[in-house]
Amino acid sequence: MRIAFLILAIWGAIHPMYYFVQWFGENGWSIMAMVDAWHVNAATSGLVWDLTIAAIALAVWIVAEVVQRRQWLGLIAIPATFCIGVSCGLPLYLFLRSKPAI
After folding, report:
1. DSSP 6-59
2. What is the pLDDT of residues 52-84, one digit of tens each?
3. Is 100 left (phi over 0), alpha (psi -120 to 50) or beta?
4. CA 70 to CA 100: how far, in whole Å?
C-alpha cells in the first residue's frame, strides 16, 4: 500500500501541474486570472469549493494526527495540498503516515 500511496502522490503532483503550467503558458502567470477562470461558471465554482472544503478537512485531520502521533514530517502534506492539490496532499500524507514503526 505504501508504494501505491507514493505513486499516487507523484501522479497527483505531476498530472495537475501539467495543466496548470499549460494554462499559465497560454494566459500569463497571473494567479488572479487563474482564480477567475476557476469561477467561469457554476460547475467550476462548485468544483473549486468542493476541493477547497476537502483540502481544509484534510489539513485539520493532518494537524490533529501529527500532534497526537508526533510525526511532524506529515505536516509537509499541508502545503502540498494547498499548493498542488488534494490529489497530491492526501496520498502523500497516507504515504508518510504508513511509515513502519521502529
Report:
1. HHHHHHHHHHHHHHHHHHHHHH-S-HHHHHHHHTSSHHHHHHHHHHHHHHHHHH
2. 999 999 999 999 999 999 999 999 999 999 999
3. beta
4. 14
Q: What is the mean pLDDT of residues 7-30?
A: 94
User: What residues contact residue 80 under an 8 Å CB cut-off, 6+ apart?
Assistant: 9, 13, 88, 89, 92
Look at residue 102 and tell me if it is in a domain.
Answer: no
Which backbone phi and psi does 14 adopt, to 5 degrees? -75, -50
| Host domain of residue 18 | 2-97
CB atoms within 10 A of CB 97: 17
Contacts of 6 (CB under 8 A, 6+ apart): 91, 95
Give the Cα separation of 21 and 82 in Å (integer): 16
Residue 69 in any domain: the answer is yes
